[in-house]
């Protein structure tokens, strides 16, 4: 596959909506064209979001479609934390790891449900190992 010219380094602030879209898109190995096709959001608009700091924020519908393709929450794209539900306990070691590696909230919730022989992992290194194994296994599905 030829390199997509819109995959060049971002001119946008990494803390902006566009910067976060680019970050998650590149982490998932998607070109701008692929994200556009899968989210049904135009490539031109996605490019504008990623590269123009003055770009208007996307509608909730567009943001949802983009987040769904990227496997993150809308709040991840907006840079906001979701208030965790009372029933979901996130172990301190997982929270530490998640903050260090800037994990999406959806991934933190998924990991917080993991237990081995009745207990969650105890160290952030163990969480990192598990998360890496899960992310690496995505290639098996292709």
TrEMBL record:
Region (Disordered): 1-20
HTH cro/C1-type domain location: 21-77
Keyword Zinc: no
Domain of life: Bacteria
Keywords assigned: DNA-binding
Listed PANTHER family: HTH-TYPE TRANSCRIPTIONAL REGULATOR (PTHR46797), METHYLPHOSPHONATE SYNTHASE (PTHR46797:SF1)
Protein name per Swiss-Prot or TrEMBL: HTH cro/C1-type domain-containing protein
